[in-house]
Amino acid sequence: MTKTLHHRACHLCEAICGLTIETERDADGSQRILSIKGDAQDSFSRGHICPKAVALQDIQHDPDRLRQPMRRSGDSWQPIGWDEAFALVAEKLADIQARHGQNSVAVYQGNPSVHNYGLMTHSNYFLGQLKTRNRYSATSVDQLPHHLVSHLMYGHGLLIPIPDIDHTDFMLILGGNPLASNGSIMTVPDVEKRLKAIKARGGKLVVVDPRRSETAGIADQHIFIRPGQDAALLLGVLNTLFSEGLTRATTLPVAGLDEVRAAIGEFSAEAMSQRCGVPAEQIRQLARDFAGADKAVCYGRMGVSTQAFGTLCQWLVQLINLVTGNLDREGGVVCTQPAVDLVATTSGGHFNRWQSRVSGLPEYGGELPVAALADEMLTPGDGQIRALITVAGNPVLSTPNGRQLEQALDGLEFMLSVDLYINETTRYADLILPPTAPLEHDHYDTTFNLFAVRNVTRFNEAVLDKPAGALHDWEIFVGLAQAFAARTGGELKPTMSPEQMIDMGLRFGPYGDRSEQRLSLATLRDYPHGLDLGPLRTNLAERLKTADKTIQAAPPLLLADLRRLAVQPLPQDGQLVLIGRRHVRSNNSWMHNYHRLVKGKPRHQLLMHPADLQRRGLSDGQLVRVRSRVGMIEVEVAASDEMMPGVVSLPHGWGHGRPGVRMAIAAAQPGASANDLTDERHLDAVSGNAALNGVPVEVEAA
């Protein structure tokens, strides 16, 4: 028997923590994992690890994980060979498009797609051949407002300024809970120590959230806010910065600040207090404290994106950093300079070049908002979706009005899923193609190095052998592309492996052949613990992708949306509203089939303030019915004074007890799907992003 130590990053969340994995190989060549620990030699994560990384071995050994292509036959599943599967997909999709047009086939790509570089490099090798405008992804139930604002202001949807958390004196967090998420559009391993370090050096951490979250629990100040009203608070802060002369000059080229100042003149702290539920003087003091700090960061994450004014929120976050002189400044927010630079090598994107057929929602970067997907399947007429491809996604549990989507999936002519499991969505597929497991293939973080709080890079070698007969995800897409091209007479350009693409990206990147570092894939293989390329540095002026190389502070689209907020009715007294929540042991819907991640104290309950329980004659631990416009669930309620009165919280991703799901541990867990309550009509009107927070609900005894 031979023992081997491997070093790689965990890919299960955005923190990309370094791991040390010990394996053992028997005389017959078989391998097993002996341990997974944090890598103390990783300068970025510094030995930090969370429970998800340890569960990588559970994914590897899960008996429910699919290991060969499976074709559905009634209520059962039968193995099918790869070539036969590829030919079947080509035949079905080509036939459907021939009869109903290119847009009759739709694509949905889930969150794990950006955690797997084979999907990033090769999924479009096949999907691009379909030439469909019905492309969807998890982006529009998560971060679309981030990308749209960067596109409008900076000229590229990936040019997102990142908090310089290691050097700031004041960090304001809205709608984010890094202690549960490990950072989000802020790749920040060991985040708790980094946040506590702000306080240790005399700085201040302020969290704005309708719930006293884990991150709020370690903050200097926690401010309760009505769900869906963060834009009002941010407008009150920005108005105060202008009206009290608290702005600071910047050397960046900026256009439109005078227009912004004029447009927000009526949105005073006093006027906005009625909307957001935060006292006017507290809003003003928050603005003064932020402006008074030498180096400050305003960071708004998922909670402010997934609401009716999500794009407005992200624009205001950028403006607050800009007008206080904290944009593109050490200790403020700074854009990364990654070794593989997607900003430099891709276009800035486009917005609203076409709209969804039924609801008229705008595309961004070639994708339509996923809230439109079910209607596009269910509504008859020219362009109706007849076939669907899902890639590493479970939209039944992760997108709004999951029950409506179930109905739509059940009526498709054909469905293909590239996935490891038969889950709540893939159970409707006609064919499931499973790739190799995470530790059986190499990996490079093209996305999360772009959002990191330091400039870092590493190449992750495979830990375990590729099983006989298995295919990596990129090989699946090459096989599908070849079969579809042969069936339709299309021509394919030559391709190469993902690692060859990364080598080219490194060599032509900012630290490549023309730099003193001369990075290549061979170089990174000499740094198994990763390579630190230094702190974030001022660089926005030269990286701007706008036509005139100027920051566009006043996009007309966003100035116009201020009027929508101004005329929005004030929140109703006594109305309960729903928000989500995250947990460090979970990531959306797909980590509930591993015992070590679901054991312990249950976390599926509906959290509710004790006063709200008493008002409705309910008690802690009782089974309750929760109703919204679109549906009803039954779930256990838990009394919690960490909730703002009038607000209830339910984590999404649960509700696995649906027929046909083959995930035994997950199906045995209690809980219901929050997205059986969220509303496909409840949207950010600018971007079409789903407004998953602030959903009106009623709660009663079951």
TrEMBL record:
A Pfam short name: Molydop_binding
Superkingdom per UniProt: Bacteria
Entry keywords, A to Z: 4Fe-4S, Iron, Iron-sulfur, Metal-binding, Oxidoreductase
Residues in 4Fe-4S Mo/W bis-MGD-type domain copies: 3-62
Gene3D superfamilies, per the entry: 2.40.40.20, 3.40.50.740, ADC-like domains (2.20.25.90), Dimethylsulfoxide Reductase, domain 2 (3.40.228.10)
InterPro entries noted in UniProt: Asp_de-COase-like_dom_sf, MoPterin_dinucl-bd_dom, Mopterin_OxRdtase, Mopterin_OxRdtase_4Fe-4S_dom, Prok_molybdopt-oxidoreductase
Name the record gives this protein: Molybdopterin oxidoreductase family protein
Lineage, uppermost ranks: Bacteria, Pseudomonadati, Pseudomonadota, Gammaproteobacteria, Pseudomonadales
